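Renewal narrative, Specific Aim 1. Our central claim is that a sequence can be written position by position from structural information alone. The example that follows is taken directly from our test logs and has not been curated for this report. It begins with the structure tokens describing the chain, in the order in which they were read.
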């Protein structure tokens, strides 16, 4: 079960479209900071700040390959956030099931009274 602090860090990191785009790129494979910065109209230090947020949330890690420090997606925090959201989906599904039951009951009562 993820801690509240872990979920806070994950959702805070995911709240920015640039960071989500970086994660989408890293889902295709490792990339250097320069490669990650290419599609964005921002400085490399600005990209590095986004990477730091993602790294602090545990969503990416950085390795070392000679002169290169490739970034890699770490999916565990995303899996934990998904698990948290699934619990709320279950709640809403049960609420919709109750609403369906109520509507079925109302239809049945209308049919009994001839008001359909």
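The sequence written for that structure reads:
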């Amino acid at each position: 079960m993820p801690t509240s602090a872990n979920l806070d860090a994950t959702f805070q990191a995911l709240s920015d479209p640039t960071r989500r785009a970086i994660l989408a790129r890293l889902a295709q494979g490792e990339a250097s900071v320069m490669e990650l910065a290419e599609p964005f109209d921002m400085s490399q230090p600005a990209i590095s700040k986004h990477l730091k947020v993602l790294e602090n949330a545990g969503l990416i890690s950085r390795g070392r390959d000679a002169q290169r420090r490739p970034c890699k997606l770490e999916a565990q925090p995303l899996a934990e956030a998904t698990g948290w959201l699934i619990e709320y989906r279950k709640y809403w599904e049960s609420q919709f099931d109750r609403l369906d039951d109520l509507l079925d009951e109302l239809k049945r009562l209308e049919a009994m009274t001839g008001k359909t």
